[in-house]
Design brief:
Blueprint: H1 10-13, H2 16-26, H3 34-47, E1 55-59, H4 65-73, E2 77-82, H5 85-97, E3 104-108, E4 121-127, H6 135-145, E5 146-159, H7 165-175, H8 183-192, E6 195-202, H9 204-209, H10 218-229, H11 231-249, E7 253-262
Bound molecules: S-adenosylmethionine.
S-adenosylmethionine (SAM) is lined by residues 10-11, 14, 29-31, 60, 62-63, 65-66, 81-84, 87, 110-112, 127-129, 132-133.
Length: 263
């Protein structure tokens, strides 16, 4: 594990300039692939028994776009856990404006200690956020709060065979990721915590194939970003993105989707 001193707080990644940069890159579904990645995970979850209705735990709900999608697609009440107050404040505006204020419920807290009763959730969901977390603690908490037979669907960044200690330290410093797991390590973690793994899919190629070309007005947008946040802010935002892109293109990091059933 990297030292706690070098682990960036995820809330800093999404400060004012970080959020403006991320919204420009992916929109309110705050992950690569944007809404199409949410749909891809939902299709896989539904094919493996993610049922309609009930209470769904959405971990690291951020701006709430995936929660609103889940509320509509699965007619669910979505319990949105995130540790960042600013994310909840922005999410609630979106929930209300889309008429989902009662169906998407914000809960401020850390996923490593979910403030939820045991056996109280019908399903669990997370996209591209376990990378920020203590994964064994979170998976144990998900197992605790899910009802037997409930589905846990998530996507996350994964380590590939060439992943190095230097890569891990860069991701810790630039992105606030304490560690990444390889797919077999995720499968073993889920299995040991009481889940039957139904899907463990390497989606790296799909993600790389879905990358969009730069927008025609990208240079203008960068100028306005620099005018708003300062010239150095562009370099500060580019460093994490470019470091990580190099890892993915070099086959040292990738992207996975997982569906598991609580035994
Ligand atoms: C990449 S964003 C998640 C994106 C979101 N799942 C989506 O798809 O739109 C990371 C989010 O994880 C939250 N987060 C990171 N670590 C957390 C933890 N241990 N507990 C709760 N929230 C956490 C951050 O506050 C931030 O909102």
């Amino acid at each position: 594990m990297p030292s706690p001193d070098s682990l960036r707080d995820p809330r800093d990644v999404y400060d004012g300039p970080g959020m403006a940069w991320s919204l420009r890159s992916v929109g309110a579904h705050l992950h690569p692939g944007s809404e199409s990645a949410t749909v891809a995970l939902a299709d896989r979850a539904a094919a493996h028994g993610f049922a309609a209705g009930g209470r769904v735990l959405e971990m690291a709900s951020a701006l709430g776009a995936p929660a609103r999608f889940l509320a509509r697609r699965f007619a669910a009440t979505v319990v949105c856990v995130d540790m960042d107050r600013r994310m909840h404040a922005a999410a609630v505006v979106g929930h209300r404006s889309e008429g989902l204020g009662l169906r998407c419920q914000p809960v401020l807290g850390r996923t490593e200690r979910l403030p939820l009763a045991g056996g109280s959730m019908d399903a669990a969901w997370s996209q591209d956020a376990l990378c920020h977390m203590d994964k064994p603690a979170v998976v144990a908490e998900v197992a605790r709060v899910l009802k037997p037979g409930a589905i846990f669907a998530f996507s996350d960044w994964i380590a590939m065979s060439g992943f190095t200690a230097g890569d891990r330290d860069s991701l810790s410093r630039l992105w606030g990721f304490p560690s990444l797991l390889r797919i077999p390590e995720y499968v073993a973690l889920l299995d040991g915590a009481g889940f039957e793994v139904l899907l463990a899919e390497d989606r790296t190629r799909a993600l790389l194939g879905a990358r969009l070309p730069a927008a025609a007005d990208q240079e203008l947008w960068l100028e306005s970003f620099a005018a708003r946040f300062g010239k150095d802010a562009v370099a500060r935002q580019r460093e994490p993105s470019e470091t990580w892109a190099a890892m993915i293109e070099g086959g040292r990091s990738g992207y996975g989707m997982f569906v598991a059933r609580r035994r």
